[in-house]
Structures are given as C-alpha cells and as structure tokens.
User: Which sequence fits this backbone?
C-alpha cells in the first residue's frame, strides 16, 4: 500500500532523507508504539511521534494535569489542569495528525497489565518516573521481545538507552539497574527539581530512538547508554554489559 498524496506532502522532509525515504516512512506508518507516561518526557515524544506519522500510538498514564506540571509538560495548557493526561495527550495527537490511530489508557501500567498492553506493539517508549513502573515495563518488554527505549531525567541530567535483552549479546534494562532498587522510593523531580528544556531534549531524543528502531536508520544503539549533562552540554556513551546472572534475561531466567 502506497502513501497518499496528502501523506507525501505531510512527510516530504522525511521522504527526501536518504536514510528514511518512502520505505522508511511506510515503516513508520505501519508501526505500533506504546508510550508509558505523558509527562515531561512523554509530552515531546508523543508530539514528535504523532508528527512523524506513527500508525498507531497508545499512551498510558493514570495521572491528571497539575499546575506544577506545566513548566515542562508541553502537551498541556493552564486550562487542562485537573484533566486526564492520557486523554488530553490523545486529543493533542488527533489535532497534530489525524492519520495516527491513538488510544488513551487512563491507568497505571504494572506487572499485572503490562503483557496485555504490549501485545502487538513494535516498540515501547518509557518515560515513567519510578523504578517499579520501569522494571515492570522492562520485564514485560523483554518477555514479549519488544524493543524498549528508556529515557530518564534528573535536574540537569538525562539518560537514554535502547534495550533488547532477549538477544544473546544485548543487555536488558535490569542488566543496567539490577534488582537492588527500592521500587517504592525513587527520587523525583518534585524533590530534586528539573529543568523543563532538559526534559524536552530527552523526550525528543527518545522519539528519535523509537523511530530508529522501526526504520533502522543510522547505527544500532541497543546496549548503549547515552548520558547527557545539561550543565556542561556534553554527552558520553557507555556500552552496557549483559549480566550473566540477570533475573530477567540470563539463561538462568529462562
């Protein structure tokens, strides 16, 4: 099935890119993506994925908009305070690009429902703000063989990684963070603060990685952790090892 005249016009700047082109845009249109969290990271990620023409976008968030969110969660306006983040994000997606089939899930993802939410998904983008959610998503993504793009933020710093732990030479998210975290007690931006523009940078980079996963442009980033320092505006890349004793992706886990 080819792109329509409207799509050729809408995505023209993608199509002229040698590493995307028409075939890449068709892959984007066919992609089904799951975004965990419509907050600081999810807000720009959702906007760029919608604008890019992702075929189906599911947004999961059980929170409502508060006034303190507006400094960084650019999907929302003052009039949205008190409204469902997932529903409002879906409304914005429809306004950005009516070609995108968007679904709002107004509930918290957990180990109980993650497998169902990940069914038939091509890539999951996690921008959640606590380890309990991140680990539930990561374990379910690994079990379902769904690539995980994970972005995190704190103050002026960000981290971005892509994980495919079911592959013999690639780590999963738990290889990176381990099992020792207290999942109910995670530092958050309410306690430590966060620069809004830094969150926007990480959400945009996460969207780019999700598009890389489905189109294959550039080099494969799975197994690498990108650490961004907003104070000095520097980035370093760490190659993450696979943990042979990992409780999620090691041979013992099987």
Assistant:
């Amino acid at each position: 099935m080819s792109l329509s005249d409207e799509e050729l016009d809408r995505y023209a700047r993608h199509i002229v890119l040698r590493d995307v082109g028409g075939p890449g845009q068709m892959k984007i249109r066919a992609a089904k993506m799951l975004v965990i969290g419509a907050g600081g990271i999810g807000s720009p990620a959702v906007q760029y994925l919608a604008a890019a023409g992702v075929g189906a976008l599911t947004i999961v968030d059980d929170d409502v908009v508060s006034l303190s969110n507006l400094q960084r969660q650019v999907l929302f306006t003052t009039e949205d305070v008190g409204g469902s983040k997932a529903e409002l994000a879906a409304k914005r997606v429809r306004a950005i690009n009516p070609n995108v089939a968007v679904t709002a899930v107004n509930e918290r993802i957990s180990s109980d429902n993650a497998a169902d939410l990940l069914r038939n998904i091509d890539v999951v983008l996690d921008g959640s703000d606590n380890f309990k959610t991140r680990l539930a998503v990561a374990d379910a993504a690994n079990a379902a063989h769904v690539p995980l793009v994970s972005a995190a933020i704190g103050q002026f710093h960000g981290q971005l990684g892509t994980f495919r732990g079911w592959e013999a030479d690639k780590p999963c998210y738990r290889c990176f963070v381990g099992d020792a975290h207290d999942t109910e007690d995670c530092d958050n931006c309410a306690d430590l603060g966060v620069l809004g523009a830094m969150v926007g940078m990480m959400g945009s980079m996460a969207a780019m990685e999700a598009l890389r996963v489905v189109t294959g442009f550039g080099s494969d980033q799975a197994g690498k952790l990108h650490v961004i320092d907003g104070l000095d505006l520097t980035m370093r890349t760490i190659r993450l090892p696979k943990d042979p004793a990992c409780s999620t992706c090691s041979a013992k886990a099987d």
In short: Strands lie at 32-36, 56-60, 101-105, 123-126, 148-154, 157-163, 224-229, 234-239. The domain at 31-239 is CATH 3.40.50.720 (Rossmann fold). Residues 196-215 form the longest helix (20 residues). The two ends are 39 Å apart (CA to CA).
